[in-house]
Specification:
By secondary structure, the protein is of the alpha+beta class. The chain has one domain: Aminopeptidase (3-Layer(aba) Sandwich), CATH 3.40.630.30. The chain contains three helices and eight strands. It starts with a strand and ends in a 9-residue tail after the last strand.
Length: 155
């Protein structure tokens, strides 16, 4: 797997297309979520993804403080392809996302909104649930924060 870390302006049209196609395939088609996938936040995000010979296999984006959370940088749109689920690639992706966030913003808390079924996945990287369950785009979620010290369970 090849790791890529780029701002939108650094991406090729093919890279952008392949990422957006996978995001729509997972979030809109597979999860049947009729929400605006193109939300205006990609232009300033840092995009982190893995590819293999078949294309994009895992993706997330890093958002600046004040975009999704008033104080903390955030990680969002975390996904893996059907082909790579259960292989550990998602854990590698999230670890890379945390590293990128810390490189850009320092050792600060990191925010994300996790689908309820995936809370344990994020917990393995030190994210802690900080809200009651809530519905976002028709899907149950938790707000989660990874403390600046990495959290009690970070690996």
């Amino acid at each position: 797997m090849d790791l890529h870390i780029k701002k939108l302006q650094e991406m090729t049209p093919d890279e952008l297309y392949d990422i957006m196609k996978l995001r729509v395939d997972v979030f809109v088609v597979e999860q049947e979520c009729l929400a605006p996938e193109l939300d205006g936040r990609d232009k300033d995000a840092i995009h982190v993804w893995f590819t293999d010979e078949e294309g994009v296999q895992a993706y997330l984006r890093v958002l600046a403080p004040g975009v999704e959370h008033p104080e903390y940088p955030a990680i969002g749109r975390v996904l893996t392809s059907k082909k790579t689920r259960g292989t550990g690639l998602g854990g590698r992706l999230l670890a890379e996302g945390v590293c990128v966030t810390e490189e850009v913003y320092g050792k600060v808390p990191i925010y994300l909104e996790a689908q309820v079924y995936a809370a344990g996945y994020y917990g393995k990287q030190g994210f802690e649930i900080v809200s009651d369950e809530f519905i976002l785009d028709g899907i149950p979620h938790y707000k989660m924060v990874r403390p600046a010290d990495g959290g009690a369970h970070a690996v």
